[in-house]
Design a protein that fits this description.
Layout: H1 6-17, H2 23-30, H3 34-46, E1 66-74, H4 79-90, E2 95-100, E3 107-113, H5 116-126, E4 133-140
Antiparallel strand pairs: 1-3, 1-4, 2-3
Helix pairs in contact: 1-2, 2-3
């Protein structure tokens, strides 16, 4: 069984849509017997294709309705500067995602706060005091018509 065969692809699509689906219902949706489906799911978990299951939260309902993506450029392009920056943002609860990217900046961050005032505080008092930060550009999320993050 390979991770990218048609049956596994169907299983993965259904689990992304509903990670709490019962094995019986999953098997019916993907056209397998429950035992075959369970074996496949367990193998996908064992091999690390499925890394885990989590709850997807509504930021507005959890008091984090202000969402922004930030690009961050560092003042130094060294491994030590990157490690120091990553440690600093790992401690900030407002930072929900950190991605090291290629291009004109080093990082792309997803930040969630309660409102613009809380974001300004984060921008100035948390991100703005990290010594390695050279440039910050903020992109405020106005709507997310498609969001398939699990």
């Amino acid at each position: 069984m390979t991770a990218n065969d048609a049956a596994n692809d169907r299983i993965l699509r259904e689990l992304v849509r509903d990670g709490r689906i019962s094995n019986i219902d999953l098997a019916a949706r993907v056209g397998l017997s429950p035992s075959a489906c369970l074996r496949r799911v367990q193998e996908l978990e064992r091999t690390g294709v499925i890394m885990g299951y989590r709850a997807v939260l509504n930021p507005a309902r959890t008091g984090r309705g202000f969402v922004a993506y930030l690009t961050v450029g560092l003042s130094q392009h060294t491994k030590l500067a990157q490690e120091a920056f990553e440690r600093a943002v790992a401690r900030a609860p407002e930072v929900r995602e950190v991605h090291n990217v290629t291009g004109t900046v080093e990082y792309l961050l997803r930040v969630e706060t309660s409102d613009l005032a809380a974001y300004k505080h984060f921008h100035t008092e948390v991100l703005g005091v990290i010594a390695q930060v050279n440039a910050i550009t903020t992109y405020v999320v106005m709507d997310s018509p498609k969001d398939e993050r699990g």
